[in-house]
């Protein structure tokens, strides 16, 4: 790549440009100064009220509010790191034509696709993801797609055998018809121009899909579906003792570009199925382990200098994506430090107003330019192009692997199916290979957190690598969002545990992070690592003002008090700025409203439970793993999701605090209204109004919960056990609160 970089520099062809919005930066800094001043004022107020001698009850209230506000202030400070220097980039793939004249000029690209469970991650969708990248606008002889199957499923392998045959038709079809949607399923949905060729293509696709789905239904690959001796031999590895948790390595080359051609005679990309060896007695480190296996297996076979990591659901939506990446990787100015180019996660099939906040605009779209203005965005786990060198120590501290064949500068001299190569590939995919090696610690993706993406990217950056956020107008990738509440919450619960694993490791962002990357980068990472802390202030604000209101005790300054203005400014300022930033990146008000609701819902459920599980895990009581998010669409659930009804359905302990908060707030609201209409006690509406506002806001946010508890009768309503449990808990809490005020 160096020679091409030199050529690019010599020709002075711009491949990318960057832009810092002065206006946004100045505004953000100015606003941060004012807001910071208001926070200081609030702390003055807190300290003053703590020093006032009062009852034990009100002391407890003041302390709780004070602690909550300290946490909120800490979160606010961390979040400012994203606002100090937001950077936006553009790339000019058109200029590459001058530099890359023939296929051999292009650097090779290894694509890693991870899948882990054929029932939660339908193999046909994994196949579509693979096809969408095999069909990139990129020399096919330079693309190798490696599929990691942690589900160890013959059904997934079978799906890929079919995919390899289908690719021979699909790739030329895309080329000749200028197809942009290169995921076949997406193409057949969006295509408007039907002719005999498209009809034929669709028929072929449907045939493949049905075959794959039938195999899944029967849970085995029938004899009649096997084509030839080679397929027979590999499928025979699935003996009776073969289980997803315990089985030998399976590596199968499905297509090889020097041998297999498509129907027009053009070579096909390499396609390789890898299911690493699993044993119940050795640790396999979930996705990080899978990726490290692919790093090694691909090193023995193709060793491309560029690697794209994809989740199985994350298909390509733009065949020009690798060209955009080259605009950064071939830039001589960036060359020495650039470790990865991250694309945003975009999602398809999101409901109109995104009820579960599944788009996660803040971490995936709003914050990354902020980090790009510093040292670059964090790694999202998918849609990211790495330079292979990043997995071998910092830019100036090369860490060589134990086997020289795994080194990033090793040149593979043999065809991928040669016995020596296959033998080595099997060896490095063995479950004991990593014992007594540096893999997972100094080499490859890092072990120690179930958010291997966040942790690895963070460690790479602290080793001195920089990253770039590439956010073109046409989404580069699309993935799936969870379409029911349990899935949405379980996903974030896993993240919470993984993040806390980082927070409480030797690599905590506020210590190690700040030291190795500077204050603002450290704070950016801390913003995520401390996300679960958010539970505390949300829980306090979800209960305390309401319980005080029920007991007629004012806990905020009354509306005529100037201190009330400070509170009002802090609230409106934070939510207002959040809304503006959300709308600027294309969000709507309704989506924002749902998004902010989900932030509180998560705080009261998955972040809280994640924290508890993290504590149990740290004490050795539980052994939390990587619970894969389901990508299957149940038709009933899909329908309710489209109608934007919250899907509770199953019993989950995480629903209990949500329902309890909803109940207490409703009670608080009703009693508050009754009091201010002249019912007993309270005294002066202006004293209670601030609390009424908090309750009002909470009740508005809880609306879908009330619906699901009392007004709906479909399969997604809150299970009655949860409703009763939360009513009981709410009563209990109100009863004890009466002693406090
Ligand atoms: O033991 C495992 C577990 C998971 N996976 C794969 O990891 C990917 C992500 O899993 P998913 O259940 O979709 O998790 P999400 O929470 O949706 O994923 C986000 O968060 C993960 C970290 O928790 C990152 O790995 C992902 O890239 C990021 O998109 C999927 O392709 C899985 O097949 C494995 O390969 N092996
Ligand atoms: Mn996912």
From TrEMBL:
Q: How does it sit in the membrane?
A: Multi-pass membrane protein
Checking InterPro entries in the record gives: Cellulose_synth, Nucleotide-diphossugar_trans
Q: Does the keyword Plastid apply?
A: no
**Record-annotated membrane-spanning stretches:** 26-47, 59-79, 525-544, 564-587, 599-616, 654-676, 688-706, 718-740
Q: What is its main location?
A: membrane
Where does the record place the catalytic residues?
Answer: 150, 453
Q: Which domain of life is it from?
A: Eukaryota
Listed binding positions for Mn(2+) are 287, 311
Q: Does the keyword Transmembrane helix apply?
A: yes
Instruction: Please provide, in alphabetical order, the Gene Ontology terms of the cellular component aspect for this entry.
Output: endomembrane system; membrane
Where is UDP-alpha-D-glucose annotated to bind? 120-121, 150
GO terms for MF: cellulose synthase (UDP-forming) activity
Keywords attached to this entry: Cell wall biogenesis/degradation, Glycosyltransferase, Membrane, Transferase, Transmembrane, Transmembrane helix
Q: Offer one example of a GO biological process linked to this entry.
A: cellulose biosynthetic process
Task: Tell me where it resides.
Answer: Endomembrane system
Q: Pfam families from the entry?
A: Cellulose_synt (PF03552)
Its protein name is Cellulose synthase-like protein G2 isoform X2
Gene name of the encoded protein: LOC111483347
């Amino acid at each position: 790549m160096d020679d091409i970089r030199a050529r690019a520099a010599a020709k002075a062809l711009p491949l990318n440009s960057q832009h810092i919005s002065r206006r946004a930066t100045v505004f953000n800094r100015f606003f941060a100064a004012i807001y910071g001043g208001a926070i200081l004022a609030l702390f003055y107020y807190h300290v003053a009220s703590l020093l006032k001698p009062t009852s034990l009850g009100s002391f407890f209230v003041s302390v709780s509010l004070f602690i909550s506000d300290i946490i909120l202030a800490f979160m606010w400070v961390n979040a400012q790191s994203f606002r100090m220097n937001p950077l936006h980039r553009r790339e000019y793939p058109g200029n590459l034509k001058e530099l890359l004249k023939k296929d051999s000029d292009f650097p090779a690209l290894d694509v890693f696709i991870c899948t882990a469970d054929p029932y939660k991650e339908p193999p046909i969708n994994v196949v579509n993801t693979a096809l969408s990248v095999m069909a990139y606008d990129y020399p096919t002889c330079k693309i190798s797609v490696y599929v990691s199957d942690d589900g160890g499923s013959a059904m997934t392998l079978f799906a890929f055998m079919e995919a390899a045959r289908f690719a021979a038709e699909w790739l030329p079809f895309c080329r000749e018809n200028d197809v942009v949607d290169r995921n076949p399923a997406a193409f057949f949905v969006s295509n408007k121009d039907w002719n005999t060729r498209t009809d034929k293509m669709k028929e072929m696709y449907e045939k493949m899909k049905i075959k794959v789905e039938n195999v899944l239904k029967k849970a085995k690959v029938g004899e009649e579906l096997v084509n030839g001796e080679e397929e027979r031999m590999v499928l025979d590895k699935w003996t009776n003792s073969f289980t997803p948790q315990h089985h030998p390595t399976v590596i199968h080359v499905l297509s090889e570009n020097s041998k297999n051609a498509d129907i027009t005679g053009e070579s096909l990309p390499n396609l390789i199925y890898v299911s690493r060896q699993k044993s119940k007695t050795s640790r396999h480190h979930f996705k990080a382990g899978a990726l490290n296996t692919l790093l090694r297996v691909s090193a023995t076979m193709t060793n491309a200098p560029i690697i794209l990591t994809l989740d199985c659901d994350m298909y390509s939506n733009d065949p020009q994506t690798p060209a955009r990446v080259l605009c950064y990787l071939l830039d001589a100015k960036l060359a020495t430090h650039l470790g990865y180019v991250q694309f945003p996660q975009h999602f398809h099939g999101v409901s109109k107003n995104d009820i579960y906040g599944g788009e996660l605009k803040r971490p995936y779209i709003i914050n990354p330019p902020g980090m790009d203005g510093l040292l670059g965005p964090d790694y999202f786990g998918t849609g990211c192009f790495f330079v292979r060198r990043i997995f071998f120590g910092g830019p100036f501290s090369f860490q060589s692997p134990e086997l020289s064949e795994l080194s990033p500068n090793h040149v593979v001299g043999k065809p991928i199916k040669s016995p020596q190569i296959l033998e080595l590939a099997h060896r490095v995919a063995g479950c004991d290979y990593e014992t007594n090696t540096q893999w997972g610690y100094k080499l490859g993706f890092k072990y120690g957190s179930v958010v291997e993406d966040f942790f690895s990217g963070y460690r790479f950056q602290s080793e001195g690598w920089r990253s770039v956020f590439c956010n073109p107008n046409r989404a580069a990738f699309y993935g799936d969002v969870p379409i029911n509440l349990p899935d949405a919450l379980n996903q974030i619960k896993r993240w919470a545990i993984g993040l806390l694993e980082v927070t409480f490791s030797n690599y905590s962002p506020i210590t190690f992070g700040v030291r190795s990357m500077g204050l603002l980068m450290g704070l950016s990472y801390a913003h995520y690592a401390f996300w679960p802390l958010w539970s505390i202030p949300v829980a306090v604000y979800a209960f305390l003002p309401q319980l005080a209101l029920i007991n007629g005790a004012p806990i905020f300054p009354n509306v005529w008090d100037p201190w009330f203005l400070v509170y009002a400014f802090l609230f409106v300022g934070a939510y207002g700025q959040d809304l503006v930033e959300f709308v600027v990146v294309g969000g709507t008000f309704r989506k924002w409203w749902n998004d902010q609701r989900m932030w509180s819902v998560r705080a009261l459920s998955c972040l809280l439970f994640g924290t508890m599980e993290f504590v149990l895990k740290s004490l050795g009581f539980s052994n939390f793993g990587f619970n894969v998010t389901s990508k299957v669409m149940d038709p009933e659930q899909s329908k309710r999701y489209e109608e934007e009804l919250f899907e509770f359905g199953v019993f989950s302990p995480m629903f209990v605090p949500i329902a309890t908060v909803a109940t207490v707030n409703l009670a608080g609201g009703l009693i508050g209204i009754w009091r201010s209409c002249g019912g007993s006690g309270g005294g002066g509406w202006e004293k209670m109004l601030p609390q009424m506002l908090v309750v009002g806001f909470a009740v508005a946010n809880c609306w879908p919960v009330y619906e699901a508890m009392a007004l709906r009768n479909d399969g997604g309503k809150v299970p009655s056990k949860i409703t009763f449990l939360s009513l009981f808990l709410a009563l209990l809490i109100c009863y004890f609160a009466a002693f406090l005020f």
